Amino acid sequence: MEDERGERPVSQMPPPRELFADRVAVVVNGNAKQVTDDLVDILDQIVQSGDLFVSRSLAEASEIARTIVRRGYPTVLTGGGDGTFVQMVTRIIEEARRTGGKRPRFGLLRLGTGNALAWVLGAQSPRHRGVIADLGRLRREGGSRAMRLLEVEGTLTPFAGLGIDAIALRDYNATKAALASSRITRPLSAGALAYLVSVVGRTMPTYLLRPHPRVRIVNEGEPASRLGQDGRPCAELARGEVLYEGPSRMVAMSTIPYWGFGARIFPYADERPDRFNLRVVDITSLDVAIHIRDIWKGTYRSDTVHDFLCERISIHYDEPMPMQIGGDSVGSRATVHARLAPEPIEVVDYYAPPPHA
Q1: How distant, in Å, are the alpha carbons of 127, 212, 239, 265 from that of 282?
Q2: In what order do the strands lie in the sheet with 75-79?
Q3: Pairing of strands 143-147, 345-349
Q4: Alpha-carbon span 80 to 263, nearest angstrom
Q5: DSSP-assigned letters across all residues of 135-151
Q6: 3: phi > 0 → left, psi -120 to 50 → alpha, else beta; which?
Q7: Rounded Cα–Cα distance for residues 92 and 152 (Å)
Q8: Tens digit of pLDDT for each residue in 127-155?
Q9: SS3 53
């Protein structure tokens, strides 16, 4: 409340940014299975008072982003999976751009299920001890580096996709809920085993007899490269040219090699710092079953897998297709625009050289 002169009382003035200059903000998704009351209590004892934020809705996430930028935290750690990271990074970057605030360094606490980013940034196993250890490692071992992101429908994300990957995600969520409903199967309701059960039991049988939807993908930016099966550029396509037109099971894009559970779905994501890996797949369910190991390792090559290095694209389906952004389902789309985000973000990377004392 302001006084008659329009000034806030000293007790209500926001704390000076210098108080937060060497502190770490921790934002956890209160809806994530791993985020229990016990974990919240433990984190609250580790981080300084007021530096732990629990988000349970997009509205809360936006308010947390405003607080983080206003205080000027130099480092923000998110816990709850790739989707939590994506949502908080997007909102914090938006708020920093809107207010002229400083963009913090971002890190990940491995509290989700798939956690593609954990494989890239070196976060430990999704257990309380691993999360606590990562907080302890932050100053001692946590190096920094720049990480490129995509911008898809206004969201900053390392990966996104349409088709079978989004359908598999939807089926996984349904399978996870079904397994969690019984005390006997509840221990199997999260992790790679539940994902495998979902793919084999739900996604593949459904897709086996389903017609392959048609898609047209247009280069909307700088020249794009088509990659041959040896991974080398075999053609260059200018702005306005069609990259791919035909049937597809999946259209996916990424700036990092990994998908959830360490699956190396985008083996060319690190080829160029000014391009992302676009992958168009028209593989059959039978081929997936036969070659699942090579697909997982990123070594599968076929004339039904088409790879490109792109800066900006538009994707056009004949009918709306399920879509995921950062591992979160976002409904169905017939047209999508995606580009490499103009600026990378700084991230905590335990594989990078540690900071100097």
Answers
A1: 37, 8, 24, 14
A2: 52-55, 24-29, 75-79, 105-109, 345-349, 143-147
A3: antiparallel
A4: 19
A5: HHHHHHH-EEEEE--EE
A6: beta
A7: 16
A8: 556 676 777 777 666 678 999 999 999 99
A9: strand
- Residue 192 corresponds to which amino acid? A
Strand 312-325 to 328-340 pairing: antiparallel
Report helix, strand or coil for 201: helix
CA gap 140, 104 in Å, rounded: 19
If you ran DSSP here, which 8-state letter would residue 103 be given? P
In the chain, beta strands by DSSP E: 24-29, 52-55, 75-79, 105-109, 143-147, 150-152, 155-157, 159-163, 214-219, 224-227, 233-237, 242-247, 250-254, 276-281, 305-310, 312-325, 328-340, 345-349
Tens-place pLDDT, residues 56-100: 887 899 999 999 999 999 999 998 889 999 999 999 999 999 999
Contact 174, 264 (CB under 8 A): no
